[in-house]
Write a structure and sequence with these properties.
The chain has 1 helix and 9 strands; from the N terminus they run αβββββββββ. The longest helix has 30 residues.
């Protein structure tokens, strides 16, 4: 009986990992493409929030090979690598001596909205208390 349990436990663990990988790939498929960051919400300590809409919105592009870039009108291109980790979007920028004031490295709580005709994505940085809202 003990041998049977020892054999079955790794199979259960492997199956659950496979399910997470499939779910992450499906989410990644929904993220891939060109997005515009049209609003930034900065959360304050007293539950007030300050929403800032942009006039010239930065573009954020997520590619199939898990790379991407942020394009701003005045600062140029900032390249990054990304991945989906359950309900988080992880961004790691290729610094190359550049500083990016648009969006930092980190784990962002990912929320996707499939509103028709506009698709939206919300990226919340719980460490810095800021949320970015992007539309496709």
């Amino acid at each position: 009986m003990k041998n049977l349990i020892i054999c079955i436990l790794p199979l259960i663990f492997f199956a659950s990992c496979q399910q997470n990988m499939v779910a992450n790939e499906k989410t990644a498929d929904r993220v891939i493409g060109k997005w515009r960051m049209y609003e930034t919400v900065d959360f304050q300590n007293n539950d007030d929030s300050a929403a800032v809409k942009c006039n010239v919105c930065p573009e954020v592009e997520f590619s199939k090979n898990y790379t991407g870039f942020i394009k701003s009108a005045d600062a140029g291109l900032f390249y990054f690598k990304w991945k989906i980790d359950n309900d988080a979007l992880v961004i790691h920028q290729n610094k190359n001596g550049q500083t990016n004031d648009i969006m930092n490295d980190g784990n962002y709580k990912l929320t996707l909205f499939d509103n028709i005709p506009i698709k939206e994505m919300s990226l919340t940085d719980t460490v810095r208390n800021i949320k970015y809202i992007l539309s496709k």
